[in-house]
Give the backbone structure.
Amino acid sequence: MDRKTFLGCLSALLLAGCSQRRRRIVVGSKNFTEQIILGEIIAQQIENRLHVPVERKLDLGGMLLAHQALLAKEIDLYPEYTGTAFANILKSSGVTDPAIVLERVRAEYARMSLDWLDPLGFESSFAMTVRGEDARSRHLETLSDASADPAGFSLGCGYEFLTHPDGFAALNSKYSIKWTAAEKTMDLGLLYRALAGRQVSMVAGNTTDGALSKLDMRVLKDDKHAFPPYQACIVARADTLAQNPGLRQALAELSGKITDDQMRGMNYAVDGEHRPIREVAKEFLQRALR
């Protein structure tokens, strides 16, 4: 091979390599089971439909870390909840209509060149949960009932619930619950174990937690609407959607496909049955998109 031919081949290889790097799509997620499952579902959907390399940056950390990774172009997209963005990124409150919250989030994120796709189908709100036996003996159905209970409660929660404005602060702004001890922060996967073991008497979980379908627990109704709606969506960089033909359509196939019960089932499959996340995600896609 002469020098000219060699340089031509080398140039072609380098261009091909650059093209592959440009086409690689990076999917992120936050650092709890539901998010990692959703991230894996999204990654497999892109691989199945577009046949392009997908890099997974799952288990990134909290909401702010994931959002910053998106803005810094370290990831191309990740799953997020409307209420989380509404309260923590937009610093807004006082709206309980899911459609209005989504509309406002979409409009403000568009200024950051970020697109919110249509909701995936389920809502994952905070679930203020007590033991079933306590709910029955103390006649607890709502958070207003908890406010009227003179015995009070000790709370277990994740760090973000305690520090973000849509969590503990929002709860206390609407309800005068008597707290009998300092809040115990813990990994979200330990909440229900702590509740069942009587280390705390109330936990701030999520409505799609798999344990809620298996354990004798009661989620107290947020009758004063302390928490905003939390529709699960995919938020993506606008340039990524524009540069990858078919990506928006592939992601749109997931819209409306995941029910609350399905998300609880997938969460339990991972947390309760210790099944591999990739397997759980694959089975969901096979059922939902066949």
The beta strands are 25-28, 54-57, 77-81, 114-116, 126-131, 155-157, 184-185, 202-206, 217-219, 232-237.
